[in-house]
UniProtKB/TrEMBL annotation, chain A:
The chain crosses the membrane at residues 42-64, 98-124, 136-160, 172-191, 212-237, 272-291. The lineage of its organism: Bacteria, Bacillati, Actinomycetota, Actinomycetes, Micrococcales. This is ABC transporter permease subunit. Keywords: Cell membrane, Membrane, Transmembrane, Transmembrane helix, Transport. It is found in: Cell membrane. InterPro entries: MetI-like (IPR000515), MetI-like_sf (IPR035906).
UniProtKB/TrEMBL annotation, chain B:
The keyword Zinc does not apply. It is found in: Cell membrane. Keywords: Cell membrane, Membrane, Transmembrane, Transmembrane helix, Transport. It is a multi-pass membrane protein. Residues 1-10 have a biased composition (Polar residues). This is ABC transporter permease subunit. One of its GO terms (biological process) is transmembrane transport. Residues 90-300 form the ABC transmembrane type-1 domain.
Amino acid sequence: MSAPTAPAPTRITAADKMRGAAARFSRSVAPVAGPLATTAKYISLVVACAAAVVPILTIFFAAFKSREEYVTSGPLDLPQNWFNFSNFTRAFTDSDMLAGFVNTMIILVVALAGTILIGTMTAYAVDRFDFRGKKLVMAGFLLATLVPAVTTQVATFQIINGLGLFNTRWAAIVLFMGTDIIAIYIFLQFMRSIPRSLDEAAMLDGANRLTIYARIVFPLLKPAIATVVIIKGIAIYNEFYIPFLYMPSSKLGVISTTLFRFKGPTGSEWEVIAAGTILVIVPTLIAFLLLQRHIYNGLTAGATK
Amino acid sequence: MAVTSPTVATPTEPRKRSATSRPPRQRSGSLTPWLFLVVPLGLLLVFTYLPVANMVWYSFTSWDGLDAVKEGVGFKNYVDIFTRPELFRVFFVSLYYLVGALVQLALALYFATILSFSTRFRNFFKGVIFFPYLLNGVAIGLVFLYFFRPDGTLDALLGVVGLKDTPLWLGDPSIVNYSLAGTSVWRYLGLNFVLFLGAIQAIPDDVYEAADLDGATSWQKFRYIIFPGIKQIVGLSLILAVSGALSVFEIPFIMTSGANGSETFVIQTVDTAFRYSKVGLASAMAVVLLIIVLVISAIQRKFFPDEKGDLV
């Protein structure tokens, strides 16, 4: 601990002395403070986990309770029968959740395919060509990141309506495709790491630009595509406002809107609402457990652009 | 690098490029990039820029969203927003979410820092703290409706420690915004936390080893190594917190529909447009919010200039 110190430097300011004193103090209390700090650290982590889990856990308990049981027991009481799935079947059939999952899947698949095509094409054009107006195009995409989508819905609604897309799945699909700038950035960044010599070689072999895009660049973008699929897939699964505003028809419910509408008529039957909520949470939990690392990496890539 | 004619490339240019070790790019036949860009640009224009332009136009009219004629009213809508207190008041609701967001950033920074040091069950803690961020917004709304309802989870928990006389968490106008802002913190903490943790872990290990050799304390490591390494992402998160607080929508809309004084500016805007059919006034409100968000972003670019410029 007390290694022989070098001869003191010529000038020691008061601030240096203070800092030295602080360091000496914290080193001297370390044997005591260390275990204390470690305990505090683990306590804070356990509290945080409890705060994250308890609200979900109690609704999970409620989902397994029968009507009388729900009325007579408190939220923290465990259900008597863990195999009472009647609330789940009721929630699933009464709210037509199957249709919700199907609609969500259709929108998810089409919008993801579109986003990937559009994003990779844009990134290819911008990274591999020099052309007039390139800076303007990039500025156009950059500026669009600043426009919060929720504010422009007032006017977007008129456009969707004018195009005859209101109350169709296409409304959600084109909006998910047309407003995704983050995906373009992820592709652009990844495209930079693909050596241009590959393009050059193919061009010497007589390949045209479309072939190069389709056969060389696109397959090499797979990791970036995986990132976009995960990030965008979660976002589409969770999106509430776009389907709520543009697809009010009861046949066109997605997961979010189905669950939202289910709450109304079911009123105070919380054990059934709880079951519906759990049904929506379970796919997310499974996706998270399977794709953890990809999700973390994707979010970091998307946020720092 | 100014190009006078798009079709003719001067013969010296490719050589100049190769000097910077970049192979020559195709300049002639400059229609090709536009073929790749026509769909993306079309969608960008139709679904981002056209709505913004239309919105500005509508904001100077008294349009109801259906009428064939859009009657111009000048600045009346804007004057209304700033002179009718019931329209402007909702901005103050954002303050609850702003304070919530600051708490959220502080907590995220704390947990990211302690988990960047060696910790038992680190991945478990990381996963649990992060997971709420992935959840469906409606599911979160219902989870917390159950949490805050009379005799719900929160009341039961408080009952365990002997607090029986609890308020109506979502029914009392003086409390509802705390409850909703708290829900918002619960939902978004995980994102900030994971981003901060990623930035901290991007700092090379040998820096910490050097600090250990010098006998640095945990606080010194945070102050002189971790914090400078994540300044950028903290700055970005701070700005996003401000614009996020101004455009809060989902949680209050799903949980209370804006009742009991929990109405936010965006809820009011969409209600004005789609429930009361005052598209002109709603557009003016949306334009005001857009301008505020743009100003905040400009401030961010001034104080936290990032590497985004190299994308162009």
